Every structure is written in C-alpha cells, then in structure tokens.
Amino acid sequence: MRWPEALLGFSLVAAGVLHLLPLAGLLSAARLEALYGIPVREPSLELLLRHRALLFGLLGALLIAGALRSELRAAAIVAALVSMGGFLLLAGQSTELSSPLRRVALADLLATLLLLIALAVQAWGSQGDSA
To answer: Can you tell me the distance from the alpha carbon of 25 to that of 7, in angstroms, rounded to the nearest whole number?
Structure first.
C-alpha cells in the first residue's frame, strides 16, 4: 500500500471512530449528560439526543466503510463535512458553550481536518490517474 492510500484510509477511519463515540449516548440519559454536559431530564430531549447518537453512529460507519470502499468515499466525506461544518458554524455563533460541548467542537474540528486531508489525497490521487 502506498503512503497516500494509507493516509487516506487512516483519515477516514480516524474521523469515523470520532463519530462512533457518541453511540454511547444510546445507552442512557446519564451517558448523554456525560457526553454533552447538560441535564437530560425531559424525555423529548433524551429522544432527540439519542437519535443524534444513532445518526452519528451511521455517519461513523459510512466513513469507515469509505476507507474500505472507494465508491463510498465521496458521499462519506461530503456528509461528514456538512454535518461537522454545520455544528461548528452553530457553535461559533453560541455565546456560551459548556466544556463538554467545546470538546465536541474540538473533536469536530479535528475530524474536519482529517477529512480535508482525505479529500486532498483523493483529489491528488485522481489527478495522477488521469495523467
């Protein structure tokens, strides 16, 4: 395996693993509170946050699948970048973020950088294929 392919795979898997971490929130309100640093006493809020955990799990699985299957890469990268970019924009507009939400934003920033690396490697590789 050439280093660009290894870097691409590493970037996708690492971003995927970061997206799998919120899956712990599916287990209980206590896990959600630990993840996000907010009280989850309202059943509707718990449902929304558990659903968010599920969606992030799906996105993480898609990113990892993209590391293994080249035909899934573009969709995985675009979906993750839109998701994380949206969160980062919304978080940037917030005047007050809890410490756990700042960690989420930092993780999203890290995953965004990993995916931008993956995107650059993918684009660089496709230029070499057409030459």
So the answer is: 30
